[in-house]
Amino acid sequence: MRLRMTMTLLSVALLVTFASVASARTLSNESNQAAAKDNLSGKYEGVAKSDQLGDIPLTVEIKNDNGKLSGKIDTPQGPAAITSGTYADGKVTMKFDAGGNEGTVTATVAGDKISGKWELGGQGGPLELKRAGAAMATAPPTAPPSAGSAPAAGDPVSGDWDATADAQGNTIPFTLKLKLEGDKVTGSSDSPQGSAALSKGTYSAGKLSFSLDTPNGAIGMTGMIKDGKIVGEFDFAGQMTGKWEATKKK
Question: Is the pTM of this model over 0.70?
Fold first, then answer.
């Protein structure tokens, strides 16, 4: 009788042990499968394209929690939080907050690439991202001219400028970094409201023209350059117009 009781206890102990091992393996396999399925979380770099704004360089950080997405999008105009999103069957949908304006992204995932479309404030276009660290066949963003580079002789554009814009009676200070190559002008702008990339810049016969790309629309800037000064006008996406002027830093 005692032998039978001992054998019964051993059998129960072995069954409990096997059940514990099997459970641990199942949990481990499920964890590994979940990790394997999450081929989305990480850091991505690329561009959002627009006919109005040109190419906008992006850095996107995505966190995938069982198909629910969060993270942020960094642009030259500042960060935008990913407020909601989903990922299923290789398809991504995201909503992001750009200064109080809601934007959307719809895309597909193929390996390290995310390709799709973006929309914000009535504007939009193609979106191309690649996981950071992987090569991407796109042209690098144009770097603003360095502070130490001297403009070529006879170049009235290249350099740093202190500027102000009159927006309905309010004076808005900002700075410009401009670089002239042939008749094309590149650079950037900084103000208390943030930074903006410069696109579609041209200079000919003393006339300067360019756009400042902002999340709320493009600001068209024109002006005449004479004796180290610019006097001109701006048009903010058809919503506001005014005058601006700038003086070249020594």
Answer: no
